[in-house]
Amino acid sequence: MPPLPVIFGCAGPALSAAERHFFREAAPFGFILFARNCDNPEQLRRLTDDLRSQTGRDDTPILIDQEGGRVQRLKPPHWRDMPAAARFGKLAAADLAAAERACWLNARLLADDLRGLGFAIDCVPCLDLGRPETHAAIGDRAFSADPAVVAALGRSQADGLLAGGILPVMKHLPGHGRATVDSHKQLPRVETEAATLAAQDFAPFAALADLPLAMTAHVLFTALDPARPATQSAGIIARVIREEIGFRGLLLSDDLDMQALQGDIGERVGGALAAGCDVVLQCNGKLPTMQQAAQASPAMTAAAWQRWRDAAAQVAGTPAVIDRRQVAGELDELLAAA
Fold it and tell me: Residue 108 pLDDT more than 90?
């Protein structure tokens, strides 16, 4: 039986009896973890194993947002402090090749950490353009304002993750960089004309359209759909994300608990899936909300499941072993120049 097309969070560093019962009954597609779930490597490996045991699927994907900078769920002293994307962009302004190499090395170290902890997916690269008006919710999570630089560094980051056996998720389609408010708190409204969006904001995503996974933006683009944000817009998903940008992989929504969206969680789930998202994220780890999301969700479609199987095949096999000290030393030398 196909799983529910939902990725759930959980409340803490270990599953409660109620969570185990719910996850066994609901059989979600996957899970996503946050800082509240990550105490130390041994605890975290137990948690990822426990989550997979509830679905009965060894290939159940477990995701994390481990970007670097402000957005890293795994932090010192147990894990390496990762630089924000903007630091690689700063290096790229002086030496693009060095920045690409640094991005790859950083991602390869990151993949080595994540795979050992039981993760399958990291929600990077962030391909949003870092513009003067970009809200701090994105801020230094963006590589650059230059679409070509963003595409180049995003490719290096994605390649480093894939080389280490971790699937990347490019985000936030079709572009979050022009948002001037925080979509966690309210709906951003972008009034830029379609031609400018296509030439600038869409360009990094189009350059990386072959990646296996992508995430939508809770942003309303008046030139594309004046009534609905991208996550819930069938027109944006079909015409822009699937056709114009050319993305054919598994499309995830951003977190449906964010206040950019209206309605209860059931309406948000239904709206995103009806618009064309393959899988939705419901991340707050609160059992009543998860139960409502599960009740509103149909089974995962055959087309979405096939997209997932195609994505997972990109990291089949065991990655090559790396010398972590050597990789980290080269990375530190390159970043010192920035």
Answer: yes
